Amino acid sequence: MTYVLGVSAFYHDSAAALILNGEIISAAQEERFTRKKHDSSFPINAIKFLLKDNKIELSSIDYIVFYEKPFLKFERLLETYLAFAPSGFKSFKMAIPIWLREKLFQKKFILDKLKENFSDINKKTDIYFSEHHLSHAASAFYPSPFQEAIILTADGVGEWTTTSIALGKNNSIEILDEINFPHSLGLLYSAFTYYTGFEVNGGEYKLMGLAPYGNPIYKDIILKHLIEVREDGSFKLNMKYFNYATGLTMTNNNFDELFGNKPRKKDSKIEKFHMDIASSIQSVTEDIILKIVRSLKKKYKIDNLCLAGGVALNCVANGKIIKEKIFKDVWIQPAAGDAGGSIGAALAFWHLELKKDRKAKDNQDSMKGSYLGTKYSNDEANKELDRIGAVYEKYNYEEMIDIVAKEISKGKSAGWFQGKMEFGPRALGARSIIADPRDENMQKNLNLKIKFRESFRPFAPAILKEKVQEWFDFKLTSPYMLVVANILDEKKIKFSDKSYEGLEKLKEKRSVIPAVTHVDYSARIQTVDKNTNYKFYDLIKKFEHITNCPILVNTSFNVRDEPIVNTVEDAFKCFMSTDLDLLVIENSILKKEEQFK
Amino acid sequence: MEQILNFIQFLAKKKKYWLIPIFVFIALFGGIIILSKGSVLAPFIYSVF
In this predicted structure, what is the pLDDT of residue B40? Predict the structure, then answer.
């Protein structure tokens, strides 16, 4: 019995993951416990959960592995400040104290944190360090269903690396190529996220969602001035336009002059300009990724591709990789961002340091549907509901499924809290808000009355795995909602003669499932498999039985700027503060109107 | 202190000798720098540090 604990922390999306004899058994993000979105603090609550969930003490852990190397990162910082000196003093003044106080002494810091919280820490307990992109690569390859694959990782920046190519074979990972800071596809996308007024490292989804409302009219300017892209997809940014290397903003005045506007202020109106900018950078990003992927296939002639790193959360680009059929099969780590680095660090240690064998399962990854987090039994959930004074009805499983499916088919929306919480940014039917996709007002209602977020943002369809080809131009599976595909022509609704521009496009009913059809007819699909989430599967099946539609709207169970709910109490609070009609926790159902009696 | 020496050894091992005096200078004046408050994250930037 060998336990390896992987930890990612201190930048964004802190998380901890536990593997037992090479098997991923639990994982959780710290934000879910602290209720602070993208929490970067040491994941002590996540670690406590992992230990409790598996009924072990900290002393049972054999190895603790941190997901990156702080010394390498500090070396990059020193060299960057030197290269850009004397500019960058403000950033230097902010960064150095943090490093000299904490980050350079990460080993001690982590051990101290563990000692503060666990009395049984082993005197021999040591901390091991993986590398940032190796952790990403390991998180993409080791849980994948492939024995051999090319691994592409791309994000903002790790230590030095921003993009890496590796070969995964059996239990080994060999890094083949890298692109280093400051040249970064993730930071390029984040620069545009900043410029269009969204929050860096969190608002990238919004930029991607905004792109279909615009036209890529700035694409040529981006390619001419901001980035040089070579035939193999490798690239170099023109740092004349960016400020992130040593400044405190992502872009600078040169960037503003190039596009003729200042960055949009948060909460100010989104204009057509911003939509065109979003469309342009999305198109450039897709082109670069496709160029890289094509050249990898040509160069290495390997059938399978694994993806991780924040850029791998760009599901529109992922969809294009799959649609082009460049690789026979593609697998993307569901927690592709830094949280997933905790899984990768632990697995890299297991296979590369401890040299343990690996046998991939055909057609089945080892992420367990990404359901790796907290869970409640029916009794535990009801006890919690009693404690917080909620009014609820208990049902047996079949009754619960029946009632929820019927209510959803009548246009009700529900908070769906079932089984183990998801690991990663997507809600996959364990901590989800669900609704009827056929309702043409549902997107607007969910965005404005329940999620309290921008009206333009699309919702995703969760569809029975075996039905996906009947509804979408997509022949594979997408269990982690990381791929975008178009709805089939026969499900589209022909446009009226009136043509809409920008956000007005939302007014047009585009398909028979308008709540999950984006303005360009695309949808971020989740294929639901009975083997990984039978409850969600049964619910959709029942909904199909009533409506002939094997699809539900699935969006994360949270409101704007909050993490996905973790506990029964979080779910109840979210339920009560929104216009949700129902809350379904295991087999118990809460109705909104009953709570006020 | 041990970690500071470790970092110097790390730079030496990587043959990045020119960074050693710079780091020593920063470490020596670290007390002054540490006294000035550094915030964990700048508000509008990806967390590159």
Answer: 47
